[in-house]
């Protein structure tokens, strides 16, 4: 039976442990309540992410399992995401403010990505597991939470306690135990003078 004890990345150059150890699970404990202190710290890390000109052009929706908000987010998830993400203790929606006072905020999506990254790293440091998703209905999220056209949903992140792989479907077990791979840095760097 596969286990999820060590998923540390094999890196080509040294990186800090918290980054090498962080990975995106799809197996969450469906009974665990969110660790509120860890969630608060992750939100605080998000708050201190760099943003262009300190515009802070981002927002989050925190939807704890069992709430109406959680149900609305789960119903907006697409395909395979809807099969596993509902087990997470919370679903956090990251939203970019792409227009302010009629002016485009061209950097807002980038900044919101940094916010999500800071959240993810802090969550992992405090023992929470996370998984970001792009497969969801953005219009359904906007309608459910009354988001104006000034806001664009960037990602939905499942957050919670790592679950027991033995309770997962064979398909989910295969995905969770597959080798962690990334293309080499040299294939991503366009210019390195």
From TrEMBL:
Signal peptide region: none
Domain (Nitroreductase): residue spans on this chain: 20-160
Keywords: Oxidoreductase
Ranges in coiled-coil conformation: none
PANTHER family cross-referenced by the UniProt entry: NAD(P)H NITROREDUCTASE YDGI-RELATED, NADH DEHYDROGENASE_NAD(P)H NITROREDUCTASE XCC3605-RELATED
Family statement drawn from the similarity comment of this UniProt entry: Belongs to the nitroreductase family.
Protein name (record): Nitroreductase family protein
Species the sequence originates in: Microbacterium psychrotolerans
